Structure prediction request, 286 residues.
Amino acid sequence: MSRNAQRAEPLPAPLFNLPMTLASGQVFHWLPDGNGFAGVIGDRPVRVEQQGECLWVTPNDATTREEVCRYFALDHPLETIYATFPDDPAMREALAFCRGLRLIRQPLWECVATFITSAMKQVKHISQISHTLRQRYGRPVTAPWSGQTLYAYPAPEALAEQASEAALRECGLGFRAGKLYGAAVAVARGEVDLQALEHEPDDVVFKALCRLPGVGPKIAHCILLFAYGRYAAFPIDVWIERVLRHHYFPRRRKALTLPQLQRFVAQYFGPYGGYAQQYLFHHARN
DNA sequence: ACGCAGGCACTAC
DNA sequence: GTAGTGCCTGCG
Prediction:
């Protein structure tokens, strides 16, 4: 295939639902742009638009296409993953509703920071905070298709050196300001090496992440799932907890504790429990 | 009987 | 959601 022919073509994206993937509470900075979405992957401005099983990417160079493919996990074998899901009514319904929803591969720090700011917040507010942080501390990049300025997520060093807990409060973080600032400082100092953790087993990564201020079990599992590609990780928030109790432990006298639920989901949902969780989560919220 | 581990509720952030 | 506080319970 000639270079020109390839550049003119959209990315094949069978069994993919872009709007649903972007609306499922994984990432919070993409903005609607015509019939597509505009955002930043790492520090690369990108516009994506889905038409059937095709994904139109702008700019459409080889590197960007590769980044988009990786970011949206177009290589995940969804049918194979679905085959590992337990066969029960709740899971069947969620799967029917969410087909094509993919687990995005997020940059490490961006994921850590975003989820620290997400504690007890609505999607709308998380999104607003993300944009404010980007505008004030992130690197500006120009979108080649429109000339508009977009912003990369601020690096931990940028927050540690240019911001302060007080300054972050001004971004609408509330009590999360101290947590995010503390985490940025810890990562900037190398007290927690996010990159190096990629080679460690799940439990080691989990414990290391929990050392960061503002990161507890739920957020650590989100980071494991959305940034480290540990698909057995199963974040349990109030929505999922409700789903689990309702569908798997109906009218049970004494409620199960979080650790008990965590043990249950680990063995019941298996190696792609995180995928199952995301489907149950998104379905429950819609 | 006394005391420390850890399970659990409560609350400020 | 996280994290620090304080009380209750159980085993030794």
